[in-house]
Amino acid sequence: MPDQRLRLGCVTTLDDARSSLPDITSSEASLRRFLHGLPGVDQAGAEARAAGLATRSIKTTAKQYAIDLAISMIDLTTLEGQDTPGKVRALCAKALRPDPSDRAVPQVAAVCVYPDLVATAVEALGGAHRSVKVASVATGFPSGRTSLAVKEADTRDAVAAGADEVDMVIDRGAFLAGRYGAVFDEIVAVKNAAGDAHLKVILETGELATYDNVRRASWLAMLAGGDFIKTSTGKVAPAATLPVTLVMLEAVRDFREATGRQVGVKPAGGIRTSKDAIRYLVLVNETAGDDWLDPDWFRLGASSLLNDLLMQRQKIATGRYAGPDYFTLD
Question: Whose CA is closest to 167, among 37, 246, 79?
């Protein structure tokens, strides 16, 4: 990668970048200097690039592979105030066997629920030996407007109940006010509270206003130790978009070049059709590379997407679409 892409202050080599990261995060001033030293995002260029990639066509054999890959990357999600243990158990059954009539359909990556329903999901997915992970939102999701002590307790409770992954929300108010150190410290604290659980850091990109802010928030979350960066809670419009995800994929690609550490990406919210999912897979391959085409490094946060993928998969196999009521509602 050309050194110009990183522009880490006065850093000129990748070795310099790795050694300088502790200095970057040592103070509010150095963190601000670094984040505002990142190259600006060409808005028109990012949107044109994302639009161009969205037109790529995929042939039948590759399309079936892409559909199965997308299914395996789904965080099957229910985050409603009316969620019940019964609904979560039904969702877990679908996660394990998305199409009971076809054992070749892969399982999804994870089931994502509120902290108080984590234990229910763990049990329904098979306990300690489960093959599908349990993810839990935490830290005052979706607003994040609560104290750090409550956020840490929320995280510890989810992990104690068995969550393999924690999806936290950043304090967007602090970020937009330029209090980068406060956001950094909060992510570090939640990461510590999560222990061995993977931490997905939700940027809520629909509230960040600019692509430059998305790039800065992505780097901030990665510098603080996030294992994934995630677009949205799904509660704010716009949620995931292709241009925003493009900017985040560029960030994880550049971050690995600079530090040697790979970080995952999770677009969430508004991804409802097989065409949407395949567009994201093309975007991943063309931006970050095929190292990210794996559920360990790329997830799709969705609730209704799975049924459309199953319908498209059946169309490829049989030549006809199943009715919309053929698969269970999520």
Answer: 79
Q: Is 63 a catalytic residue?
A: no
Q: What are phi and psi of 83, to 5 degrees?
A: -60, 140
Residue in 251, 211, 258, 244 with CA at minimum distance from that of residue 228: 251
Separation between Cα atoms, residue 12 and residue 20, nearest integer Å: 11
What sign results for the dihedral spanned by CA atoms 253, 259, 264, 265? negative
Which class does domain 29-318 fall in?
Answer: alpha beta
**140-197 residue pLDDT tens:** 999 999 999 999 999 999 999 999 999 999 999 999 999 999 999 999 999 999 999 9
Known active-site residue 230: yes
Q: Is 217 helix (H, G, I), strand (E, B) or coil?
A: helix
> How crowded is residue 240: how many other Cβ atoms within 10 Å of its Cβ?
24
Instruction: Give the predicted TM-score (pTM) of the model.
Output: 0.91
Report the candidate in 177, 281, 169, 175 with the shortest Cα–Cα distance to residue 236.
169
Catalytic residue among 164, 167, 254, 276: 167
The structural domains of the chain, with segments of one domain joined by +, span: 29-318
Within a 10 A sphere around the Cβ of 269, how many other Cβ atoms?
A: 24
Q: Which of 75, 94, 230, 308 is catalytic?
A: 230
Annotated catalytic, 116? no
How many Cβ atoms sit within 10 Å of the Cβ of residue 69? 18
Region 199-224: mean pLDDT is 98
Q: How confident is the model at residue 327 (pLDDT cuts 50, 70, 90)?
A: low
Give dist(CA 248, CA 216) in Å, integer: 10
Q: Catalytic residue among 75, 99, 266, 308, which?
A: 266
